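Priority: low. Protein: Ribosome-binding factor A. Input follows.
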Amino acid sequence: MSRHRRPQGFNRTDRVADQIQRELSRLLQFEMKDPRVNLATIQDVTVSRDLSYAEVYFTLLGQGEEAGAEAEEVLTKASGFLRSSLAQGLNTRTTPKLRFHYDMTPERAAHLSQLIDEARAEDRELRPEDDETGNNE
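Result:
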């Protein structure tokens, strides 16, 4: 048995996904000139076991769903350029085809947080005596 075991969950596809994420982030920051993707952040990349596809999840700082859909379209159209640029840095026989997905998780989280804050404020208005006595159930 080898003394140098790789940690669980860090197999070849994980390493390739990590490398793709880093390289795509660099490409978006320095190589893409389209302003619709300037604020895009690569959140996650998952690669198929045979390395034929990479699912790329991104967010846009301070943008809405409409801007996200537009950026997804731009990135999809630029996927050929991005894939060929990736091929130069990846140490694989083939370069995965890129599929871009706008990740709405941050917007959903902010919306849920806002709803919770509003509900708590409304609850405080309806039961102000709890705030005075410190009886928060």
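The chain has two domains: 12-103, 105-137. The domain at 12-103 is CATH 3.30.300.20 (GMP Synthetase; Chain A, domain 3).
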